[in-house]
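REQUEST ID: PR-0412
SUBMITTED BY: lab tech R.K.
PRIORITY: routine
TASK: structure prediction, single protein chain
INPUT:
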Amino acid sequence: ATYGNGMFVVVGKKGSILISLNGYDWMTCSSSASGYLERILWAQNRFVAVGEGGLMVTSTDGTNWTLVPIDTPADLECIAYGNGIFVVGGGYFTNNGAVATVLTSRDGLHWTDQPSVGFFGVRIRGIAFGNGFFVLVGNDGLTATSTNGVTWLDAFVGPENFRSVTYASGHFVAVGNDGQVMSSLDGVDWTAHRCFASMNLRDITATDSGDAVLLVGSNGEIFRSGELRPRLDLRLGSTGPELNVNGGFLPVYTVQVSTNLVDWIDWFACTNAPPATFVEPDGSGQPARFYRIVPR
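STATUS: complete
OUTPUT:
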């Protein structure tokens, strides 16, 4: 599902496309497609939906849809847009095993197959864009980063298949089989997180505010994360400034202090649970003291 051009648009089996202006009343649109549409995106004033067997359809208004001819045997399972580029990911199987597929386009109509991902050896399942670069995830714990969709730096970070990835509050968050949840600031170094799910997690999206993520799993399970950003509260106590640090997605953060917003000094490290309160005796009487939290 996606939102664009003043409407919600969802896709699914047998080329089905539904649109709604309010999220309650829905209308079916003809797409001239009969295959499974997996994902849809709104970017550059255009909807682009992708699916099995190289299926792709596009629309500028959400009502009238056109098939886009794509010369690939791959099931297209994910799509993202950034840096002026559409990037689609997926894969297919041969007698020699899985083959990863990435397609790129400037306009959503004319596409180029990128052979640089052929060595991955697994299917791509999800793509997200954030902070100036793309992150893709796939089977067998595949992760990879790219700024242009052409050249990718890959790594395998876990034994389970990833199924989806999103970007929220400066974090890439990926989900997969057996309740796997991992996050990364740069798409290279990943942190595993505890999730109460034991089933496969199939999708993830950021909330409207961007401060949390929603996970969708098998058997209709839905999970909501806590706040992705740590919260820093400050009050002036009798012995100096008191700081309370609460939440955050990463396990450890560093609180820094500055008098000029240019030069920062590490003050202390804190974990994301439980909440912690610290007092700075040297803060009393200072003309200005600024505080911030940074990943450790």
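NOTES: The CA atoms of residues 139 and 161 lie 4 Å apart.
REVIEWED BY: pending
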